[in-house]
Structures are given as C-alpha cells and as structure tokens.
Amino acid sequence: MNEEKRIRVVLIDDHKLFREGVKRILEFEPTFDVVAEGEDGTEASKLVKENNPDVVLMDINMPNMNGVQATADLVRYFPNTKVIILSIHDDESYVTHALKTGAQGYLLKEMDSDSLIEAIKVVSEGGSYLHPKVTHNLVQEYRRLAKESAMNNSVDHGIEYRKPLHLLTKRECQVLQLLADGKSNRAVAETLYISEKTVKNHVSNILQKMNVNDRTQAVVSAIKKGWVEVI
What we know:
Layout: E1 7-12, H1 16-27, E2 32-38, H2 44-51, E3 55-59, H3 67-77, E4 82-87, H4 92-101, E5 105-108, H5 113-124, E6 129-130, H6 132-153, H7 170-180, H8 185-192, H9 196-210, H10 215-225
Parallel strand pairs: 1-2, 1-3, 3-4, 4-5, 5-6
Helix pairs in contact: 6-10, 7-9, 7-10, 8-9
C-alpha cells in the first residue's frame, strides 16, 4: 500500500507565537512536514533553496522585506514551490497584488485549522485557494465593475440570472450559488444539511464541468455568464 505523499512546508512569519501555533496544527497532521521557519521575507529564498519545500506559508506584513516582495523572488527563482500568503487584510487591493505577484493562495489568519489544511493540500497539487471572505470581496468588486459597465452600455442595469441546468445538476447550482456568496465548504454543508465530504464532491464536479481549476475561477465565470446572483 503506497503511503500518501508528505507535503514539505516552510513557515515565514515575524510573530513567533502565531508561527508556533501553525506549526503545531500542521505537525499534528501526518500529511505535513514543517521543514524550516523564518521571521523575515529576506530569509525566504535561502530557506527554500536549502529545504526544497512544496509550499511556503508567507506572512504579508514583515520588517525588511514583506511577503509580496519575497513571493516575487520565490516565483522567479523557485517556480516549483507554491506560495500561500497569510494576512489579516481582506481588502481587495492586497489580494490582487499578492495574486498578481504569483501567490497561489491568500488566507486570512482568522481561518480555522481545517480550512488551512485544505488550502495547503489544494495549492500543493497545483490549485489555488482563497479565504471565503476574500473570495466574496473579490466577487463584490467584480460585480460593482460589471454593474458600472452595464449601466454604461445597456438599458438593463441588472445581470440576467439563469441557472446552468444544461450543465450542472440542481444541487450543484445551489452549491455554486453559495460559493458565490463567499461560503466555505463547512458553511455550504450546514446550509444544505449535507456533509462536507459531499460538498467537496459537488465542488469537484462543478470545476470539472465548468472546465476551471478552482472555486474562484468557477465563481467569476458564473458571474460573467449570469449563472449566480450576487447581492
């Protein structure tokens, strides 16, 4: 029986107490190896070169070199290592800047341990992961821009809403709508009275049918097509 591949992680955060808390969470999971820690963005390249991690968890606000600058260096010199930004900021401008620099994920430090673990696994496999609140803010910003465009180019100022029942099942449409509302897998499960495992299966089916890589792409694509309502 083949053992599950272990995910090598480097932690970069200038707050030692927070770093130790994350380390304990990850070391409790058999899937992860925390191979190195650093407290400044200037250490990132050196630690990645020495330890060849799969994923770097990077604080965004640090002295000397912030997480976005450090991410730019890692993306340039170590393209096989994925970077997830950790932040207290859910502002759209922070998120956009980090993603444009090359980060594969953007997590808020308020997130629960299960979501952190899920995010690292998704990113290590080549996907992207955004905190649900961050996704919601990006969606709201996109809707604002779309509404402005509609007002400038059409008499109909709203976005036509039509469920993609030609492509998705009724339940998958419900899940997609809740993703657009910024809900996590757990929140979707509680709303629909189903298990988180079932939610994950629905999300996987949605991504496959819509031919996208992650939930953020699915939500943005659904908004463009008018498949979801964004209030």
